[in-house]
Amino acid sequence: MLSPCVRWDQVVHGFWHRYPNPESKHVLSEDVLHREVIENKLHSIRLFTKTNKLPKWGERFIQSKDVKIVEESILDPSEKTLVTYTRNVGYASVMGVTEKVIYKVNEENPSTTVAERSVWIESNVYGMSKAIQAFGMQRFKVNSAKAVKGFNHVLNSMYGTNTSSSSGVLLHQKEKLKDALKQSNYKTGSLYVQ
């Protein structure tokens, strides 16, 4: 949720300008592939090139440290929602990560915004899918916290909000992250966490 200083419309405006920020040095490029209005909703597809340090075991499967990320989003100004789906198109044979975030007005305090985040992690590496999913969940938690910190930096820069408030940050995620091994699907090697 965002502090009362940052409304939903400000969060949405900040969303399109969240790179660069001090927490996003791994984001190498950002390109808009498609954007159109359908039934008064803005549909966007963007492509990001990011880099991330590979664990030693990952070097066996992956040669490049750069990965392409596709972000699809639907902005509905009448409902005041921004729904994003982000997935990696590189490394997907080893570990596929799909993240969904819904930015919406907080029902309990309409002057704040809630970000509801879900993630699906899949791996089809025989004999290692559970370990890869557990690694993916741990990496997701770390990267998610950095993304929130970076987004807060952008919002603070744009709107002069104070991130040293009693909550510690402007944007709080409503997350229900469960133990990766408990949620794994043994047949497909996929993990869904909401």
Give a structural overview.
The chain is α+β, with helices and mostly antiparallel strands and about 190 residues long. Helices cover about 20% and strands about 35% of the residues. Strands 1, 2, 3, 4, 5, 6, 7, 8 and 9 form a nine-stranded mixed β-sheet that branches. The protein is globular. About 25% of the residues are buried. Mean pLDDT is about 80; it is low at about 165-194.
Brief summary:
By secondary structure, the protein is α+β, with helices and mostly antiparallel strands. The protein has helices at residues 8-15, 129-159, 180-183; strands spanning 27-38, 41-51, 66-76, 81-88, 96-105, 113-122, 173-174, 184-185, 190-193. Strands 1, 2, 3, 4, 5, 6, 7, 8 and 9 form a 9-stranded mixed beta sheet that branches.
Main structural class: alpha+beta
Helix proportion of residues, in percent?
10-25%
State the total count of DSSP E strands: 9
| Topology order in helix (H) and strand (E) letters | HEEEEEEHEHEE
Number of helical runs? Answer: 3
Uncertain regions spanning at least 5 consecutive residues: 163-194
Shape: globular
**Main pleated sheet:** 9 strands, mixed
Radius of gyration: 17 Å
The chain-level mean pLDDT equals 82
Kindly, what is the distance between the CA atoms of the first and last residues, rounded to a whole number of angstroms? 17 Å
